[in-house]
Design goal:
- This protein has 199 residues and is α/β, with parallel strands linked by helices.
- The chain has helices spanning 11-22, 41-48, 59-68, 85-90, 116-122, 158-181, and strands at residues 2-5, 30-35, 53-55, 73-76, 92-93, 97-104, 127-135, 144-151, 185-190, 193-198.
- β1, α1 (11-22) and β2 (30-35) form a beta-alpha-beta unit.
- The model has no long low-confidence stretch (mean pLDDT 93).
């Protein structure tokens, strides 16, 4: 069982829900979609699919709500708040990470924080990318699960980069979640940073 945390339109929620419906994401049920914003469009999308929703800004309350629903993994999909240590510890795994997955708009460790696509465009980079990673106590520092780069040489604006990035996210995130949520991985150190390898 997973809970999806989102603050906005929920395009990655759409991709994950579609992957579950089509059988590409197996053995997975969305128990709850939670948001810190009452106006987030993702809430209406979830309700339309008959999925329980929750509006909660307090992370202690949020953590209790997820644990009370026997959530196994927390999936971040455009959740704009940094999770506090107590919340992370609630889902901590003895292998050195939390059972929380995030999708990030850059090839980490490059461009941590929110505006990865814009930063790549403004820096004149030829490629941008997407990272799926597990969460630890740092900001965007957890073990890397998957990365995919894409060319932005022909992009005329940061918005074009973001649009391309979202199409990559919507394919990479559900595909990566399928083996993470089914426990088919191990953690290995790679270039000084833990990476998650599927098997």
């Amino acid at each position: 069982q997973i809970a999806i945390l989102a603050s906005g339109r929920g395009s990655n929620f759409d991709a994950i829900a579609a992957a579950i419906s089509s059988g590409k994401l197996t053995n997975t049920r969305i128990a709850l979609v939670a948001s810190d914003k009452a106006t987030a469009p993702v809430l209406a999308k979830a309700q339309a699919l008959g999925i329980e929703t929750l509006i909660e800004k307090d992370q202690d309350q949020l953590g209790s709500a997820l644990l009370g629903r026997q959530v196994d993994f927390v999936v971040l999909a455009g959740f704009m708040r940094i999770l506090n240590e107590k919340f992370i510890q609630s889902f901590w795994d003895d292998r050195g990470f939390a059972k929380i997955v995030n999708v990030h708009p850059s090839l980490l460790p490059k461009y941590p924080g929110r505006a990865g696509y814009r930063q790549a465009f403004e820096a004149g980079d030829k490629v941008a990318g997407v990272t799926v990673h597990l969460v630890d106590q740092g900001v965007d520092t957890g073990p890397v699960c998957a990365q995919q780069e894409f060319s932005i040489e022909n992009c005329k604006s940061a918005e074009e980069v973001e649009a391309l990035g979202l199409t990559v996210e919507h394919e990479l995130y559900p595909k990566t979640l399928n083996w993470i949520l089914n426990g088919q991985f191990e953690i290995k150190n790679q270039e000084g940073r833990p990476h998650v390898q599927s098997y």
